[in-house]
Amino acid sequence: MAFITTDDVKLYIGTDAPRDDALITQFITAAQRFIEDQTRRKLTPVTATRYYSQNDGRLQGQTLLLDEDLLTLTSLTNGNGTTISNSNAVLEPRNFGPPYSTIRLNLNSATSVWQFNLDGEIAVTGTWGYTDDPTFAAAHSSLKQWAIQLCAWMYRRRSSTNSDSDRPIVTGDGVTIMPNAIPRDIIQGIAAHRRLPR
């Protein structure tokens, strides 16, 4: 499922003609890939299990630093193969998630330390991706708007020959020439959503 739809882009562009739907769909795919690369985030949530070893540098005391955004935790298995109850795992940041970036073991629980067998790995099963939860809609809506603007730029640029600017140029006869470089405001807007490396 795409992060934005053809209808989102067409509304922004100001067209309802179906003739460019396939082209806009291609732009949506390209824009989503670009944004995921720039932000280090997955815009379309997936359910999967991710594994963490004792030596990968992601354990800091009781805290496991996740390498991707976690939306929901389904199950958690310690490095020795035992199941850790979800009630014993604290997802953080507590006041600003989802998405979550760390899992901390509850110090008051029976399972308060990460334990490993030889070659054991912590297994985290859940839904991974960038949130579309309405409770946290502000950041999501902002990134979605930048995605729409990037697609609109791609759409308008398809017939442009200007290669010297990152701003649209209006010629003397009123023709708008779109830049070949992605406009700075779009790049900066997307960059504001970048996930910090862990």
Task: Compose a concise summary of this entry.
The protein has 198 residues and is α+β, with helices and mostly antiparallel strands.
Helix content: 25-40%
CA(first)-CA(last) distance: 27 Å
Order of helices and strands: HHEEEEEEEHEEH
- Major sheet: 7 strands, antiparallel
Rounded radius of gyration (Å): 22 Å
* SSE class: alpha+beta
Give the count of helical stretches. 4
Count of β-strands: 9
Please state the overall shape, judged from the principal axes of the Cα atoms: elongated
Give the strand content.
15-25%
Q: Identify low-pLDDT runs.
A: none
Total domains, how many?
A: 2
- Average pLDDT works out at 84
Question: How would you sum up this structure, described in words?
Answer:
With 198 residues, the chain is α+β, with helices and mostly antiparallel strands. It has two domains: 6-42 and 133-191, no CATH class; 46-128, no CATH class. Helices cover 28% and strands 25% of the residues. The protein is built from four helices and nine strands. The strands form two sheets. Strands 1, 2, 3, 4, 5, 6 and 7 form a seven-stranded antiparallel sheet that branches. The mean pLDDT is 84.
